[in-house]
């Protein structure tokens, strides 16, 4: 039986279907899971490093999980590296600091790099071919490919952030999901909800990340959980895969309500939407092309 996937972009429908279950605004690392890892439940787990709820490079400096052990934290680091590579060149134009410095984008050939500096400046270095970057009337047109990333790892990064927000009493439904994130190469192809990443990069950037987990509140043909994550220029939405209680959705049609306010809308408070989607169920090394414009004040304009 073929399953039809239907996106619903009506702004109301998302909130008619889902309610916020947890968000980075209310997040508190569960006390009863203190130094008990929810991903491996190893009795010998160590908790020397502080695990971030959302990666530092997305702008999170304050939220930590005390239920993620050092080994798991290290293992999941690979997914975060891939998410960072996926976010490409755009986010290097923002003052979002990583651990020690602002992230740097470097093109594969090494002839082009961009990095935000402390004094509110962006330094772009170009060697040779200027085709990728053109400055016209104070507008910088940039065309560059992202660093190489593995789509499935990006999806696992997002799923892991979502899992860290799931209530402990609900976690048993995600046994398969946990198994899947525990091994980078693990790929299940029997998921009836495709691993779709809904994304939108057409809105002004966010310096502090936005993340929330929403849970279905009415019986309907939509997955039980959806996760929304915005950082830098990215506004992303996924539906949590391999939830055992979604097995009942095996019907002809699966409805995916997209979040208008945080994800799909193009212009704030206007009924215009601008999003794309990607199937992330792939272990092939991939790159995307970033093509965008930035308004720049030229140094001599500032001085005069
Ligand atoms: Zn662990």
Task: Describe the structure in your own words.
With 304 residues, the protein is of the alpha+beta class. It has a domain at 4-31 and 149-279. Helices cover 18% and strands 29% of the residues. It has helices at 11-17, 70-86, 151-163, 175-182, 260-264, 299-303; strands spanning 4-8, 18-23, 51-52, 64-65, 104-106, 112-117, 121-126, 133-136, 139-145, 196-200, 206-216, 225-232, 234-239, 253-257, 276-279, 289-295. The strands form 5 sheets. It has a 6-stranded antiparallel beta sheet with strand order 2-11-12-13-10-15. The protein has a 3-stranded antiparallel beta sheet with strand order 5-6-7, with no helix packed on it. A hairpin with a 3-residue loop joins strand 6 (112-117) and strand 7. The longest helix has 17 residues, at 70-86. It is globular. Mean pLDDT is 84; it is low at 298-304. Bound molecules: zinc ion. Zinc ion (ZN) is lined by residues 37, 39-40, 42, 45, 69, 71-72.
Listed once per kind, the bound small molecules are:
zinc ion
The number of strands is: 16
Structural class: alpha+beta
N-to-C SSE string, H for helix and E for strand: EHEEEHEEEEEHHEEEEEHEEH
The radius of gyration computed from the alpha-carbon positions, rounded to a whole number of angstroms, is 20 Å
Number of helices: 6
Strand content of the residues, in percent?
A: 25-35%
The major beta sheet can be summarized as: 6 strands, antiparallel
Low-confidence stretches: 298-304
Outline: globular
CA distance, first residue to last residue: 68 Å
Neighbour order of strands in the largest sheet:
2-11-12-13-10-15
Binned, the helix content reads: 10-25%
The averaged pLDDT comes out at: 84
